[in-house]
Amino acid sequence: MSPLRMGGALASLVTGEELADQAAALREALQTGGRELDPGQVDHAVNLADKIRERTSLAGGHTVVALAGATGSGKSSLFNAIVGAPVAKIGARRPTTAAASAAVWGEEPAGPLLDWLGVAARHQVEATDGADTPVLGRLDGLVLLDLPDFDSRVDAHREEARRVLELVDVFVWVTDPQKYADALLHDDYVAALATHDAVTLVVLNQSDRLPPEAMAACREDLRQLLVRDGLTGAQVYLTSATTGEGVPELTQRMANAVAGANAARHRLSADVVSVATRLRAGVADTEGSVEGEADGRLVEALSRSAGVPVVLDAVGEDYRRQSAQVGGWLFTRWVPRFRADPLARLRLDKAVVPMKGVGESDVRAVVGRSSIPPPSPTARAAVALALRAVTDDAARGLPARWAHAVADAADPDDPGLADALDQAVLHLPLRGRSPRWWNVMGVLQWVFGLTAIAGALWLGALGVVGWLQLPPLPTPAIGQLPWPFLLFVGGLVVGLLVAGVSRLFARIGARRRVASVRKRIRLAIAEVARVRVLTPVAQVLGRHRRTRELLDQARRS
Q1: Distance CA 29, CA 374 (A)
Q2: Residue 345 belongs to what domain range?
Q3: pTM for this one?
Q4: Which of 91, 195, 348, 421 could form a disulfide with 96 if both were Cys (CB 3.0 to 4.6 A apart)?
C-alpha cells in the first residue's frame, strides 16, 4: 500500500500498533505528570485519548472528509458537485448550512460512525450519482461532510463546525478569491492544525469569477500564506462548482485517501503529536538529581530541630550520673539518686528489658513519643533554609508547576517530618554497655569503704573499752599511728581519691559516649532526610523525566 498523499504532502503509513503506542504513551504521561502539566491541555489530551478509543473501536474502513470554510466560499455547491446530486441546500440567504450533512459512498453501513460524529442528515450516494466525475479507483468508504460556516454570525453554527472538525479524518479548507487571506481561516484553523498537513487539502473555489492570470496570482499568494501557517508542502486546488473545473482532481485526491485507508490513523496520530507537543512545553529537557546522602547542612538543621543537642547533653549527664552511682565515694554516691534522671525527663530512659531478643530500642519504640522540647523558631527557620537549598538545586531549570511540586515534596511544615525525626531519636539505644572500669571502681570503693568502716568500728570499740575502764585491747600501730586510725582515715582518703579518678574517667567516658551517640543520631537523621526529603524530591524528578520520555515517545509519528 502506498503512503498517504494529501495536499502535496507525502506521509508514511501509520499502523494501528503505532497509533496504539502513541496513545498509550500519552495516557501514561497524563497519569505520571498530569498534576504538573497545564490543566487545559491535560483536559484536551484526556478528551483525545477518549476520541482515539472511540474512533478505533468503530467497525468499518470509512474515511471522513469535511468541507470547511467561511460564509460564501461555496462549500455546499462544491459538496453537491462532488456528490453529483443537490444534497446540500444552497440559498440566497447566508449562512444556509446550520448543521453538518453527510454523503456516504459504498454499501458498508456508516450509521454507527455518523452517530458518533453526531451527523443526522445523511445521503447514500448511488452508483449513478457523480457519473460525470470519473476517478481512478473507488470512493466506496468515503463519508463527505458539509459543515456549517466557521465564521457564521450564529454561535451554534460555529460551535457545530468546531465540534465536527475535532472528529473528522481529512480537512478540506474551502475558500474563495475574496476571503482566502482571512485571518480567521489562517490563524484559528489552518495554523492551529499545521501538524495535520498529511490529512489537509486546501481549495480555492469559485475560480470562474476571475481571469486565469488573476486566479494564478491568488493561488500563489494563498500558497505562501499556507507556508507561513506551517503547511510547507501544501498544494492549492482550483475548483468551480459552476463549471466543474478542478472537481475531478479534488475527487481523485479523496479517492486516494479512501484507497489508502489510513487517513483516520494519520489524523489521530497528528492529534497526539499536536497535543503532546503542547504538553511538552511544560516539561524541561533535563532535571536535577538528589542522589546520594543528605548534605551536612540539612542534617545539622534537622538535628537541631529534633533537639539532638538537648539529647546529647542528657546522654553525657546520664553517663556521669551512672558513673557516680557506681564509682563515686561509697558514703555519698546515693545522693545522685535524688536528682532527676536526665534521660527520664525526655522519656528516653527505657532500659533493656530482661527478655531474650528484646533490646532497648524495641522497648522505647512502644512508648510513642519523647518529651524532647519542640524546636525553636530559629531551628525551624534553619530547616526551612536547608530544605529550600535542596529544592532550589533540584528544581533548577524546571517549569513553575514542577518546581512547586519539588518544593511541596520537601515541605518544612510537614508534621510527618517532625514525627520521623522524633522517632529516629526515640528508637536509638542511648546507653551502651557498662564499661569495665565501673566494676573496678565499684570494687575499690567497697574495699576502701569497708576498710574505713572497719577502722571506725575498731576505734569505736577502743573508745567503749576505755569508757568502761576495761583492760585495754591490744592495738598494733605503725610508728605513732594505730592501725584503727590508719584504716579509718586511709579508707576515707583513698575512697575519695578513687572517687576523683572515677569522676575524671566519667568525663572522658561521657565525651566518648556523646560522640558515639552523636554519630548514630546523625546517621539516623540522615536516613530520615533521605526517606522524608530526598526520596520524595527524587520521585518528583523521576516523574518529570518519565513524563518527558513518554511525551517524546507520543510525538514520534
Answers
A1: 42
A2: 296-555
A3: 0.76
A4: 91
Tell me whether strands 236-238 and 477-478 are parallel, antiparallel or unpaired. Answer: unpaired
Residues 251 and 388 in one domain: no
**436-467 vs 308-327: helix crossing angle, rounded to 10:** 40
Q: What's the structural domain count of the chain?
A: 2
Same domain, 215 and 333: no
Closest CA to 254 of 169, 129, 369: 169
Does residue 335 lie within any of the structural domains? yes
Same domain, 255 and 364: no
Dist CA 25 CA 20 (whole Å) = 9
Q: What is the DSSP string of 357-389?
A: T--HHHHHHTT----PPPPPHHHHHHHHHHHHH
Whole-number Cα distances in Å, 498 to 320, 334, 438, 440, 523: 15, 16, 11, 10, 37
pLDDT digits (tens, 9 = 90+) for 226-274: 999 988 877 889 999 889 899 999 999 888 888 877 888 889 998 999 9
Same domain, 150 and 219: yes
CA 119 to chain centre: 41
Q: How far is CA 322 from the centre of its chain?
A: 51
Does residue 2 sit within a domain?
Answer: no
Expressed in angstroms, the distance from the first to the final Cα of the chain is: 18
Q: Are 335 and 245 part of one and the same domain?
A: no
In the beta sheet, which residues pair with residue 65? 144, 170
As given in the structure block, the three cell numbers for residue 29 are 504521561
pLDDT tens column, 348-380: 765 433 444 545 445 444 446 677 878 888 888
